[in-house]
Specification:
Length: 398
Amino acid sequence: MPVFAYRALTLSGDSRQGQESADTEEHLRDLLAGRDLILKTAKAARTQGLARGAKIPLKHLAAFNRQFVVLLQAGITIPQSLSILMSRPHQPRLEAALRLLLEEVKRGLSLSQAADKQASAFEAPYRAVIATGERAGALADCLARYQAYIDLRLRIGAQVSKALIYPIVLLLTLAAVLVFLFLAVIPNFVAMYADLGSALPVPTQILVAVADNFHVIAATVVLGVAGLYAADRVWTATADGAAARDAAFMKLPVAGTFRRAEAAAQSTRILSTLILSGTPAAEALAVASTSVTDRAFARCLARANTALHEGRSLSDALAAEALLPAESLKMLAAGEASGSLGPMLADIARYHESELEQGLTRLTGLAEPILILVAGLVVGGIIVAMYLPIFSLTELIK
């Protein structure tokens, strides 16, 4: 997502400047409006000291934030804490960002203002929590709450990776076995059958044809995959293309259901974390719209944020975009009515996260035997086709 350097005015007329990630300048205007800021000028920017888009890896941010919270709770000042934690061996992105943060804080900027200047390094929810913690005078408590959110994301990410490892390894093994068969084994059988001079069974003829053209078929597959990847990169290079691709992906039967569940869990967890930290709902929704990985879902959140500014409730705004299931929207409306919006959003997030984890477990349990069966049928079918002529010759001899 592009990073814009902007100048804006507060409602009281004070000048503000910083950097923010947004799809377009109009999107940036909506985000700043959620913070009661009026955009004056904006231009694409590169973050000083870091490559554009050089986001700090989440596990590195988690390790730093955990240590940062401990130092703040011990009464160490922000500049001293940053100075202590600035040296990050094997974490060059984080070290560069912390060095710039320390320089800006020493110049007199607040931590949130310094973090806003590193918008491409620190994710939007993290910067919003810092700003909220500074306003409330409870920075350590807010960052401790955000630490729980980061740890949860890392745990779910690890579960997703674990669920994908076995199918990927199995598919790679199947590919390696097929390459070995077609390059090293089947050609020997083809030469043997050519010496026989007899007609081959149809399955064996197909196998021989594939073996004879294996290099062409393999090159076609590789080029086709590379072409699809390049087309996807071109399509998603623009904000509209990325949103259209994500919207199409979300309509797929199985994968789309998981994508929507992931986006719902991610957005409600961000909202609950920010609102529980004291961030206003409109600002929290604006941050969520820039943080959700699904761009189609993010645009729906941005439209919901506009509706929220027009006076609608959060539950009504999200319902208009059909972002959450009906039962989640009812829980959200109840939370708004009872004045417990933050805790209710946390409960909704836990529900969607649980659904996502259970769905991944079920899908993995179903995919593993199916993949094993497919691999067995493919390899077994090839072996049978290889030996069919030998079976035929044995019958003739009898």
